[in-house]
Write a structure and sequence with these properties.
Elements (H helix, E strand, L loop, with lengths): L3 E5 H5 L9 H5 L13 E6 L22 H12 L3
Antiparallel strand pairs: 1-2
Length: 83
């Protein structure tokens, strides 16, 4: 699960950040949860990940759009079952 999210590109990138080095990542700050239409949108999802020494971790994020919660759930199940 995500620890925090935002759809505000300015919040994620910040005044002194870039798309390669966004300020929210550099500072480790939690995102506000702001998800609104308009402005300058993006999809930023924050999650802490522990990687063991010499290990690796695979992350899978599914982003999409649906007309209802049921349709969204069906899309997630459909795509999550793919290899």
């Amino acid at each position: 699960a995500a620890h925090s999210v935002t759809a505000d590109r300015g919040e994620f990138i910040g005044r002194n950040g870039t798309s390669e080095l966004p300020q929210a990542v550099l500072s480790g700050a939690s995102l506000s949860g702001r998800v609104e239409a308009g402005d300058d949108p993006c999809a930023a999802i924050a999650r802490d990940v522990d990687i063991p020494a010499g290990g690796d971790v695979t992350l899978l994020w599914l982003l999409g759009d649906a007309a209802s919660a049921g349709e969204a759930s069906a899309l997630v199940q459909h795509h999550f079952s793919k290899d």
